[in-house]
Amino acid sequence: MQTQRNPVYGIVARQRLNALLKELFRKSIHICSSFVPFFLGLAYWPVIGLLVAAVIFYSVSEILRSKGINIPLISKVTEIAARKRDENHFVLGPVTLVCGILIAALLLPLDCARVGIFALAFGDGLASLIGKLVGKITIPGAHGKTAAGSLTCFFAVFVSTYCCCHNCLVSLLIGLCAMFIEILPLSDFDNLIIPPVIGYIFSVLV
C-alpha cells in the first residue's frame, strides 16, 4: 500500500532547494571574484576602470528594474540571484562586492589586496554555502550564521592566505579575523568590509 506524500513537505522541499540553488549561484559570483587580482596584475588601471563601469551599469539597471524596465540578461541574473529579503528592492550585494574589491585594490599594495579579495571570494563565499548545506548549530546573536559556515570561512581564508604568504602564523591570524567579521550581522556590507580590512591587517602582520 502506497503512502500519500505530504504536499506541504513537497512545497517546503522545493523552496529549500530553490533557496540553495540561489545561494550556489550567488556565491559562485563571489568565488569568481578571486580572478580579479590576477587581472589587476596584468592591467591595473583598465581593470579598475572596468570594475567602476560595472558598478555604474549595474546600479542603473537596478534602478530601471525597480521602475519595471528590465535590462536584458542583467535584470534576469539579478532576479535569479536575489534573496527573499531583496525581492522588490535594489539588490545591493553586487555593488558592495565590487566596491569592497575596489577599495582594497586602490588603498593597498596588490599582494595585500589579493589576500583581502581572496578572503571575500573563498571565505565569505564558501561560508554561506556550507552553512546552508550542513549547518545545524547557529551562533547566538549572529542572525542565523552557523558554526559550520564560520569554520568553513576560517579554513578557506587560512588556506588562501597561506598560498599567498606561506606563513602559518599570519595565515592563522588572518583566518581568525575573517571568521570574526563574517560572524558579525553585517548583511551585504561584509562584502564592503572584508577585502580592505583583511588586506590591511595582512599588511600590518607581514
Automatic annotation (TrEMBL):
InterPro entries: Dgk1-like (IPR037997). Keywords: Kinase, Membrane, Transferase, Transmembrane, Transmembrane helix. One of its GO terms (molecular function) is ATP-dependent diacylglycerol kinase activity. The chain crosses the membrane at residues 43-60, 90-109, 115-134, 154-181. Signal peptide: none annotated. The keyword Transmembrane helix applies. PANTHER family: CTP-DEPENDENT DIACYLGLYCEROL KINASE 1. This is Dolichol kinase. It comes from Treponema bryantii.
